[in-house]
Amino acid sequence: MSDDEFLMDDGAEEDYGFEYEDEDGEDEADADVENRYYNAKALKEDDPDAAIRELKAVVELEPEKGEWGFKALKQQIKINFHRGRHTEALASYTELLSYTKSAVTRNTSEKAINNILDYVSNSPTLDLTTMERFYSDTKTALEQSKNERLSIKTDLKLARLWLARQEWNRLSRTLKMLHEYCTDEEGSNDQSKGTILLEVYALEIQMYGEQGNYKKLKETYTATQFVKSAIPHPRIQGVIRECGGKMHMAEKNWSAAQVDFFQSFLNYDEAGSPQRIQVLKYLVVAQMLMGSEIDPFDSQETKPYKNDPQITAMTDLVRAYQHREVHTAEKILKENHDTIMADPFIRAYIDDVLGGLRTQYLIDLIQPYKRIELSFLANHLNMTPAAVEHLLQTLILDNRVQGKIDGVNQRLLLQPTAPNLTSQKYAALKRWTDAVEGVGVEVGRKLGHSYAGGWNTSAAGGGGGGGTGAGVGAGPMGTGGPSLGGGASLLSSGSGVSGSGVGVGGLGGGLMMKG
């Protein structure tokens, strides 16, 4: 809430739900108090000192604490705060808190307290000691009025304030008080307060993440998994899973990070939080570091954001990564430096992303060669020869590249590798044709034919006999034997078995039996 909004927002405060029972209007005293209140409001812009005097008179004139005194104190807080008189504003606020017990309704007091604390929390000029007094006085008043719910909400608001300002000692003290509230008589977590406990854990996780204390972060993150009977706001779950993803990233557990970031995105999306865009970027980074070929924007949940202006640079980066286009990726990062690199978390892992991309590009680049100059690789990767040599040494030690480096001549000498997919395919075909030939031999034996002349296993075998006689033809591999290529037929007298030869891709003969 801005200064002007805080000072001028009076419309809402007039609706307190009061009903006036006096049919003839208020009595003379009440009318005088009301008139002085509105006169004071009219003066606050042109003569704030006179307005303050009139508002103090309203408080004094009211015989009992009531509606007009509450409103007058609220106006005093606004005017003094707007003028930078924080001590006077605090004094008026402390007096206003005494009205929350019985002078106004609980809803009215809660709304006023929340609005004032929100404004106080966002003030860049208020010193932390005075700010802390606003919260401590609020907590004291709420405890006296037995308003436990608002008291805890106030502590949570204060904890979020200390987190935003990175006041770690103050935050730790506030979190300790909140943990005490969530602890039962036996010293265990009170599961009936699971929703509050999860929010406390979320604040702790964020604190440890900011401090880089990943050991404590992991302990707290694990503890969140055991909280029962909680119905947390999706935003809280989003915070927890986001911090969990960052924890996994620090451990280089890319797949676990990807899962947490995706769940965080879903929760932020459900809550309507703008943080969903930033977490979606984290998800993209984690997925690239996994080496996954799956486009993170193919899912039903993320697809609507694929063309978001804040995301398009990341979608282009994913496309370049999947196509192993290292130069395109470098260009995207250069052209979208502010969009991508502004976040310190993303900036910390972009080097890993580029490193993985360069590594895969290098492996693909050297495959056709037996030897290759390091300078050639350096030019293709936009790296120094020394950096390329270091990368190759790492790959050789990891057995991802079979070879050695000739340091004198600055070359990579590649060793023969295991058969590739193509050679394995042809070896399998050779085994298959050998098996077919064996079947042919066995069939011939059972049909009573001699193999002395040799089976014709050529794809262009000799002409076979047709009709009802055993086909005998001369093939390139022998004579006198039945031809299995080019359409030979076999018939054993009385057996009713005929056959036809089938050639196999020029690699050998084939036999297909037909009953």
TrEMBL record:
<dbReference type="Pfam" id="PF01399">
    <property type="entry name" value="PCI"/>
</dbReference>
<keyword id="KW-0539">Nucleus</keyword>
<feature type="domain" description="PCI">
    <location>
        <begin position="250"/>
        <end position="419"/>
    </location>
</feature>
<dbReference type="InterPro" id="IPR036390">
    <property type="entry name" value="WH_DNA-bd_sf"/>
</dbReference>
<dbReference type="InterPro" id="IPR000717">
    <property type="entry name" value="PCI_dom"/>
</dbReference>
<dbReference type="InterPro" id="IPR050871">
    <property type="entry name" value="26S_Proteasome/COP9_Components"/>
</dbReference>
<dbReference type="GO" id="GO:0005737">
    <property type="term" value="C:cytoplasm"/>
</dbReference>
<protein>
    <recommendedName>
        <fullName>COP9 signalosome complex subunit 2</fullName>
    </recommendedName>
</protein>
<dbReference type="GO" id="GO:0008180">
    <property type="term" value="C:COP9 signalosome"/>
</dbReference>
<comment type="similarity">
    <text>Belongs to the CSN2 family.</text>
</comment>
<keyword id="KW-0736">Signalosome</keyword>
<keyword id="KW-0963">Cytoplasm</keyword>
